[in-house]
Amino acid sequence: MKSTLLLLPLLAVALPAAAQDTEISGRAGVGLFWFGGPSAEGTSFVNFANNFGQPNGYTNNPYSSRLGAGLALGARVQHVGQRNGLVAFDLGYEWLRSRTAITQLYYTPPGISSFSGAYRADGRTELVAQHATAFVGLGHRFKAQALAIDVLAGPEAAYVFGFREKGSGTYNGNLNWAVDQPSRAASRFDARLRADATVWYQRLGFNASYSHGLLNYQRGLLGASPEVYARTLRLGLAYKLR
Question: Keywords of this protein's UniProt record, alphabetized (predicted)?
Answer without folding.
Answer: Signal
